[in-house]
Amino acid sequence: MLSVIPNPPRIGLPIDGSEDLFPVRRVYCVGRNYAAHAREMGHDPDREPPFFFMKPADALQVVTGSEPVPHPYPPRTENYHFEVELVAAIGTGGRDIPVSEALDHVYGYAIGLDMTRRDLQEEAKKLSRPWDLGKAADASAPIGLLHPAARIGHPQRGAITLTVDRAERQRGDLSEMIWSVAEQIAFLSGYFELHPGDLVFTGTPSGVGPVRRGETMEAAIEGLGRIALAVA
To answer: Fewer CB within 10 Å: C terminus or N terminus of the chain?
Structure first.
């Protein structure tokens, strides 16, 4: 049986130290998972149940190498924000995964950015509408090399930072997550059956803000290196 249109390409993440690829299925993103970021967005950082939104897999922009890669500024916004995040890649799936076993399901970790058309997101919030126009723009999920947990372990702490034109804009520590990676996976698996290839963007520290055309962002997580993007 033939497809009536060309098959869309499957998104694959390059793996550090390997020529193999990690095929991507779904992209889940947690909201307001660092207390200081929750406060800057006008919310109480108490441990309410986490909430999630999704990005399409083809919103990923794979970034490799040390030189900045062009990143397209999306249309219909004048307030385009950066959010640096640790990304966990699911290697084995499951449903109702216990917290104590959740990290066994993680293949590896990467640096990611949850780029956001903040003006569109804020408008959607006011109108009680979905966030898709704000969160799911083309190339709105830059991501670096995937580092296997079998080699680096499971990062529990370490600096997570973002600079714009070398000026630091975000700085936090992975230990400051309100909900740990294991807790996020356990919670998600109660609502969805997780599968190999799923990604979880695990939240951003405080300092989110706009980036403009012509500026260069550099995101870094201790133990995972850095990625750089030049906003086109």
So the answer is: N
Q: Is the pLDDT of residue 44 over 70?
A: no
Count the neighbouring beta carbons within 10 Å of the beta carbon of residue 39: 13
The CATH number of the domain covering residues in 12-231: 3.90.850.10
Cα Rg of the chain, angstroms: 17
Distance (Å, whole) CA 174 – CA 2? 47
The pairing of beta strand 60-62 with beta strand 141-143: parallel
φ, ψ of residue 188 in degrees (nearest 5): -60, -40
H or E stretch including 133? helix 132-135
The domain locations on the chain are 12-231
**Rounded Cα gap, residues 113 and 29, in angstroms:** 11
Residue 47 confidence (pLDDT) above 80: no
- Quote the CA–CA distance of 37 and 55 in Å, as a whole number: 20
